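Risk mitigation, structural track. In case the binding assays with 2-acetamido-2-deoxy-beta-D-glucopyranose fail to produce interpretable data, a predicted complex structure has been prepared as a fallback.
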Amino acid sequence: MHPKVAVATLLAFAHICSAIVNITIPPYEPKLARIVPKSLVGISIEMDRWIDWSGPAVGEPNKLVNQLLSNLANYTGQAVPLRVGANSQDRGFLAPEFEVQNLTFPAATALVPQPEASRIGIGRDWYKLSGNFPPYDDFYGSGAQALAHPDIYDYPNPLNPNAGIPGWSAKRYIETWNRAAEGLIKKLNSDVPHGPRFQAGVIADPFNAWIWGIRQALVDGLQDSAAAKYIKTYRSLFNSIACQGSRITRDGIPPASGSLMGRAGVRGNLTKHAEYAEQTNRAGYEYVIGETNSFSLHGVPGVSNTAEAAIWLADYALQAATLGVKELDFHSGRGFAYNLIQPVAYESDTTNMSMPAGIEGGYYGALMVNEFIGLYPEVKIEELPTFNTGVSAYGAWEGGDLRRILVLNSAVYNSTANSTRDYQTIQLIGHKEQKTTVKRFYAPETFSTSGLLWGGQSFETADGKPSDQVTYESLSGTILNVTATEGVLVCFK
Ligand SMILES: *[C@@H]1O[C@H](CO)[C@@H](O)[C@H](O)[C@H]1NC(C)=O
Ligand SMILES: *[C@@H]1O[C@H](CO)[C@@H](O)[C@H](O)[C@H]1NC(C)=O
Ligand SMILES: *[C@@H]1O[C@H](CO)[C@@H](O)[C@H](O)[C@H]1NC(C)=O
Ligand SMILES: *[C@@H]1O[C@H](CO)[C@@H](O)[C@H](O)[C@H]1NC(C)=O
Ligand SMILES: *[C@@H]1O[C@H](CO)[C@@H](O)[C@H](O)[C@H]1NC(C)=O
Ligand SMILES: *[C@@H]1O[C@H](CO)[C@@H](O)[C@H](O)[C@H]1NC(C)=O
Ligand SMILES: *[C@@H]1O[C@H](CO)[C@@H](O)[C@H](O)[C@H]1NC(C)=O
Ligand SMILES: *[C@@H]1O[C@H](CO)[C@@H](O)[C@H](O)[C@H]1NC(C)=O
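Fallback model:
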């Protein structure tokens, strides 16, 4: 071949190659693949809004919430974990003179249009409301409904002098925890056949100091009490992905559309959790990110409640699973921009915002994750490298065979700014000839809050049941396109 022609061919080839993202299908289950927990995606509910979720009275469930939770549970065969508590729990008091509860709220502000209650009176039926959920739901939290997994706290926060009890420290937390747990064991042992399953380590750390992980807790005496043998889970709390960024940054500018999703941010925010998960698993406990979500102060409207949140949530949760995280509980309240589910419709007098009951963007991320996880008893997960900063991919193995791949494209699409919608062509290297279907998460634009579809189905329905029939494409060959802000589940039969 003439040298010039060779060079020209090479350049042309290089150009084509740079447009294609290769995903290699490993011939065997990778050594580092881990079992992906069925209940990876959980919901952490502010205690003051418990009845929004449970329904107002015993025997009067919130049917919409139950349907939306069942949709998610249906993919994995296991309940969506509900953790009831959060920081409003520190302001909860028994108030048996009330049937259900008595709440006192501080004034709303434009920045926090739906503040959490400053005082919560826990009435007689408050715990019994957990009976309103489908029977397979799993509960965590304080009190009687959570006998199986008590969660004891006022959580100490070393760096925020305005939070918690003055003089409170990690060591005092552990001492208090031990005392409370021992007391509970005495009360519970006769009721819970195999003993309670405690969770410990509910320590808030909003300023990324990362000083109170399992190491410190063990040094401070976490295993000193008779309760220690019942500890199953260690929880890390309060990690909004960009705590420093928050809903309005210091310079007053909210994070822009497109700034949440993306490989770098997701992995950067999980680095410390990876370290903690490793240490916690090594100590023999499950590691749970017990309260997390996108941007602090309840999320950024236009980002946290959009299609982008779905791509982000799927990447964040599955990446966490590859790092040994057992569960992530996505923080939710009433009217929060980052809720997966808005349990009730609400209006804010402060901002004039109103939101119907139903789902928000992140819910589709949970659908993608749970369908990826599936029903098979022990599904293993590993990330599939893509060598592209805008595309993540994860594989799901069943009994050693790769059964599904989820591909997420975190490029932005804004129909006003972009004349065409960007897409990535993916080549599945090593894909054998076999029946293969493709299911897509579609969004009109990155910042869309409605019109989102999972396999052609909308979950934006009045009763929470998916609209229409599921649509699958069949994949012939080894090439597929994944457009900007799209998630694609490839299933091998
Ligand atoms: C993708 O795989 C093909 C082989 O099918 C290879 O020729 C090409 O160099 C790879 N591209 C990249 C960007 O790795
Ligand atoms: C779960 O999903 C399957 C398939 O989409 C459907 O046939 C079944 O009725 C669902 N079950 C429940 C309990 O929703
Ligand atoms: C509810 O509690 C507040 C104190 O936090 C009290 O002022 C109010 O009267 C209580 N409501 C009722 C109906 O007792
Ligand atoms: C966390 O994620 C946000 C949003 O993607 C990003 O801006 C921030 O830099 C990330 N933090 C770290 C420590 O990587
Ligand atoms: C909300 O609407 C009222 C009445 O239209 C108006 O006076 C007020 O300024 C609005 N508040 C905000 C934050 O837009
Ligand atoms: C979409 O692009 C237009 C034109 O550049 C811009 O004005 C608008 O702010 C963008 N929308 C979002 C949500 O970023
Ligand atoms: C699409 O528009 C966004 C701004 O909204 C820009 O960041 C991005 O580079 C554009 N993508 C393409 C492929 O033009
Ligand atoms: C990918 O998209 C491009 C541009 O629309 C198209 O030419 C190509 O045929 C598509 N490939 C597949 C496998 O759909």
